[in-house]
Amino acid sequence: MPATDNGRIVITGLGAVTPVGNDVTTFWRRMKAGDSGAGPITAFDTEAFNVKIACEVRDFDPTEWLAGKAARRIARSTHFAVASAKQAVAHAGLAIDPAVAHRHGVAFNTGGGGASSMESGTRRLVARGPRKANPFLVTDVMPNAVSCLISIELGVTGPTTTSTMACASGNYALLEAYRLLRSGEVDAVIAGGTEAAITPLIVATFSRLQALSTRNDDPPAASRPFDADRDGFVFGEGAAAFVVETERHAEKRGAHVYAEVRGGAVTADAHHLTAPRPDGAGAAAAMTRALESSNTDPGEVDAVFAHGTATPLGDVAETLAIKAAIGDRAKDVAVAATKSQVGHMLGAAGAVSALAAVKTIEEGTICPTINLEQPDPQCDLDYVPNRARAHPTGVALVNAFGFGGQNVVVVLADAN
Known about the structure:
With 416 residues, this protein is an alpha/beta fold. It has helices at 24-32, 68-73, 76-92, 115-128, 137-141, 145-154, 169-183, 200-208, 247-252, 281-293, 312-326, 339-342, 349-363; strands at residues 9-17, 38-40, 53-55, 104-110, 160-161, 188-195, 238-246, 259-268, 303-305, 334-336, 365-366, 389-390, 395-402, 406-413.
């Protein structure tokens, strides 16, 4: 898409609630250190469960971000969304004047919304009957609550959207923001992804799908993207947020720019509801179209922030996709799998990977793919094994591939 009179689309604020830290500074310090957020599940009793581990957000107090009834009545995923969004707005130094609040938007996405509240609400109905049903359940579980409450809390009256694209949701929020800003409809967008679905039913369901790691005796070593000994993903939860605005708007208010959003693309596998195309064709098409739409040559790419779930099929398909999209240089490009440290955060996963990409662009240091001890022979790229390293990055691709075969790739770049 050609540039507008308002210049490039840039990121000026960051926020995070994750299994390795509830602010961006802590998150990035622990990511660079190669820390794992995995541990025994504390959200419910796992005695009868085959899977007993997850990457949970710890030491999070919603009352630090929401007052009274709002803190009590809304889902955990919405708590995370509001907290990360408020962090990002403060980080950007963005003051939302009511007179121009319509020139601001929210694009905050989720995979399951308030799925945890639906589960607990159903248990309450069965146990106590219809007269004791939670009267706030509808607004608690609706996916768009995550963006609507952000707009209420911050006074944003412009476009406020939530898209649900499973595990590609968080990445797509950045692309939605990019498109809103390119259209000229708004000057700034609060964008991100959130998820909180570590519940008995959801964990049991994914376990039955054989999608989750059962390495219960060693949680920090359980998430092993691209490793020959991988056995599935580790569930995660959390949120990441960004303030995205036009370059002109950022310049007018003297904002610091952390990265440019050059563009992106969305494709569909048209293959299967849970499994990726084995040849990675849909993912490769998303990467190729993202580069083309942003006028970025494959030779410019310095890093790929992989979807990298640690599933047997997914990691091989993504490796093939990276090779197809980048070509002969693929083995020279650093490929980082954030899920090795924070688990699979579903609707927040792409946003967290994008956050890591922005920090890499800013600092020139890339976080590692931990637990990569015995690389799968079919996964033969540079996955930054086990230790962070200096890696000046001008252009990064952020991959996110969701159930149903939805593929979203965003191109981020150094704005200097």
